[in-house]
What we know:
The chain is mainly beta.
Amino acid sequence: QVQLMESGGGLVQSGESLRLTCTASGNIGMINAMGWYRQAAPGGQRELIAGIMTHGPVKIADSVKGRFTISKDHDWSAIYLQMNSLEPEDTATYYCKAEYRVSTKCWGQGTQVTVSS
């Protein structure tokens, strides 16, 4: 199994930056993709923000393109989300997701990002 833990969230002002980290543990050698999602309100839909795979192009949502960047460690031990020029609309709980063994998925517990205007 794979376990995930996010960190790096916080309260910032509009225009500032944050870097989120998702640390993976367990059978990380089986991971084939990871990504960042966000959920603006409890019970709401989780939106894919950025995804990265072993093979294939990086995915970035149009709403954050040019402001957010995803990267990873070479062995899937961690992925990062660099968030620049943050806007109040970016306020959400940010979750990390990993896919392994082709179709198994797991989630982290989430980290809150709040952007004040």
